[in-house]
């Protein structure tokens, strides 16, 4: 029981973000490891109603993706408020078990 509490506290302390991205730590099972991909692109359409953004993005070699223009869902929809078509952005996304990409972080680059 004591061991369980310590591990739980450790998780709360170090895993505070809504979508945890763990590197290689010992106490989280492999299934929790969530790879994120950092990519640059340009905003084409911001769709606040659905929480999506259409991006013309650079290739993602790790996923064998060519450069293309596509919609991404955004985890935190408030991040769309500052974006407009034509903005150059850097963004990070994850794929839940190889499924649809979900942007966890998106920022304009000056
Ligand atoms: Cu794409």
From TrEMBL:
Pfam families: CusF_Ec (PF11604). InterPro entries: CusF_Ec, CusF_sf. This is Cation efflux system protein CusF.
């Amino acid at each position: 029981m004591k061991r369980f509490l310590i591990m739980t506290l450790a998780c709360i302390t170090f895993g505070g973000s809504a979508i945890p991205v763990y590197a290689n730590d010992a106490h989280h099972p492999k299934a929790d490891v969530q790879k994120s991909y950092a990519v640059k692109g340009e905003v084409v359409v911001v769709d606040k109603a659905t929480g999506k953004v259409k991006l013309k993005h650079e290739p993602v070699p790790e996923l064998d993706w060519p450069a293309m223009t596509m919609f991404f869902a955004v985890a935190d929809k408030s991040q769309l408020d500052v974006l407009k078509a034509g903005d150059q952005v850097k963004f990070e996304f994850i794929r839940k078990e190889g499924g649809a990409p979900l942007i966890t972080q998106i920022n304009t680059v000056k």
